[in-house]
Write a structure and sequence with these properties.
There is one protein chain. By secondary structure, the protein is α/β, with parallel strands linked by helices. The chain folds into two domains: 7-128, Rossmann fold (3-Layer(aba) Sandwich), CATH 3.40.50.2300; 153-421, 3-Layer(aba) Sandwich (Rossmann fold). 45% of the residues lie in helices and 16% in strands. The chain has helices at 16-27, 41-51, 67-77, 92-101, 113-128, 166-181, 197-200, 209-213, 221-227, 244-247, 252-265, 279-287, 299-314, 337-344, 356-365, 369-372, 377-391, 398-402, 406-411, 414-421; strands spanning 7-12, 32-38, 55-59, 82-87, 105-108, 153-158, 185-189, 229-230, 236-238, 268-272, 290-295, 322-329, 350-353. The strands form two sheets. An eight-stranded mixed sheet has the order 8-9-7-10-6-11-12-13, with helices on both faces. Strands 2-1-3-4-5 form a five-stranded parallel sheet, with helices on both faces. Helix 14 links the parallel strand 12 (322-329) and strand 13.
Length: 422
């Protein structure tokens, strides 16, 4: 924060005494200024659009429009606003709902002055680490995917062995990148036979990737926005079909065309890629800017990773395109990451810790860990991965060396044919 700059705070509470008390607590803080007060959620939404505060203190229980609904509306119009939810109730369900709505912190009433100051400064600091987008559209010189700006990046989350956590990492990574950058993020369930993202994110929709595949020649912004489902994090999700029979109708050409269209509309396209070398997987891997390749410290997984790296070399994927990430990292397996690196002759670039019980709970609740437990060490690990992927330059050789032309891809039929042609 520069000298003289203040954190602009709005207080939202239906009780006048509470609003006044909070304002008095903040009055003597030289770096904090109360710029507006609202008595209900509906008034808060209007004032937030007009005043554009840095931080909002939002009561959860209010008449007319509650704090959760108001937070969701405010985050939709300006996702960089930092919301601190306040409630006399401290139950887990209230915390979960607040975080899903987009709140950054949760304070239980009565709130101590120290906790109030710390929370406001903490969430403001989080906001200053991210670029603030121009609300209502991009200004001159701002590149927007799909509007004459740069194409978005496709990030495939993949492993040559199932069960290592690709779907969970893909879902949490998409939310983490959205939180970190406030840019447009799409998440694609390319496991069209047995996709899990609807469960992991607790999403229900009658529209899936089938609806785009059936109209692949008509792909445009309106159709894409109509089919993709919006998660509470504001990540747009393309769900897999509800059963394998319909999933079989989605071809690799469909996958390729859909991903090409999505990268025109989104800054980041995260693809949950099935653990195989079949055409559908190869379509995503070919088009990917980066392939986040997950491995675990198990012998059969390490063997499959070594085979995949050999195949990636044969397919002429640039080394910088394949990013090795150790998932469920633990020292209890009897295998060291350093020994794996020696064996496969490649560097493991990042490690994500093991949070088996917490991750299972988050899946059962339908709340990504990055939302449900934002301070967990595994969430910090995912944040490092999100930062690396969102700030790294797009590999200049990836598109030309890794992605075959549409004509070449149509003539290829599976991995074996691709390798024989080379």
């Amino acid at each position: 924060m520069s000298d003289g700059e203040k954190i602009r705070v709005m207080i939202v509470d239906d009780i006048v005494d509470t609003r006044d008390q909070l304002e008095k607590l903040l009055f003597f803080e030289k770096d904090i200024e109360v710029i507006a007060k609202a008595s209900n959620g509906r008034e808060a939404v209007a004032l937030a659009k007009q005043q554009r505060p840095d931080v909002i203190l939002m009561d959860i229980n209010m008449p007319d429009m509650d704090g959760i609904t108001a937070t969701e509306a405010i985050m939709t119009q300006d996702p960089t606003v930092q919301v601190i939810i306040m409630s006399v109730q401290g139950e887990t369900d209230y915390l979960r709902r607040a975080m899903l709505a987009g709140a950054r912190e949760f304070l239980t009433k009565p709130i101590s002055a120290d906790d109030l100051y710390k929370s406001i400064r903490h969430v403001y600091k989080l906001a200053t680490t991210r670029p603030r987008p121009v609300v209502g559209g991009a200004g001159p010189g701002v590149a927007v995917a799909g509007e004459g700006g740069a194409e978005g990046q496709i990030i495939a989350v993949f492993s040559p062995k199932g069960g290592v956590g690709t779907s969970v990492v893909a879902a949490n990574l998409a939310v983490a990148i959205r939180q970190l950058t406030s840019k447009k993020v799409a998440l694609v369930d390319a496991n069209v036979l047995f996709g899990d993202l609807s469960v992991i994110l607790n999403l229900r929709s009658d529209k899936t990737i089938i609806d785009l595949a059936q109209r692949v020649d008509e792909l445009d912004r309106d159709l894409i926005n109509d089919v993709l489902t919006t998660h509470t994090s504001q990540v747009k999700v393309l769900l897999a079909p509800p059963d394998p029979q319909r999933g079989e109708l989605v071809s690799s050409d469909h996958i390729r065309a859909i991903l090409e269209a999505l990268k025109q509309e989104f800054d980041f396209v995260i693809v949950d890629t099935p653990a195989s070398f079949q055409d559908r997987s190869l379509a995503a891997l070919d088009l990917a800017t980066r392939i986040v390749t997950l491995l675990t410290l198990e012998m059969h997984c390490i063997r499959n990773i070594k085979l995949f790296l050999e195949v990636a070399d044969l397919l002429e994927y640039p080394h910088e395109k394949v990013m090795l990430v150790l998932n469920k990292a633990s020292n209890r397996t009897g295998i060291r990451a350093e020994d794996v690196e020696k064996n496969i002759q490649r560097k493991i670039q990042l490690q994500i810790g093991d949070a088996g019980q917490e991750m299972t709970f988050s899946i059962n609740q339908g709340v990504p860990l990055v939302i449900g437990k934002p301070t967990h060490q595994v969430v910090r690990d995912l944040g490092v991965l999100a930062r690396e992927l969102s700030t790294a330059a797009k590999p200049v050789t990836a598109a030309s060396a890794a992605a075959p032309t549409t004509e070449a891809a149509q003539k290829s039929s599976g991995l074996f044919s691709r390798l024989i042609k080379r």
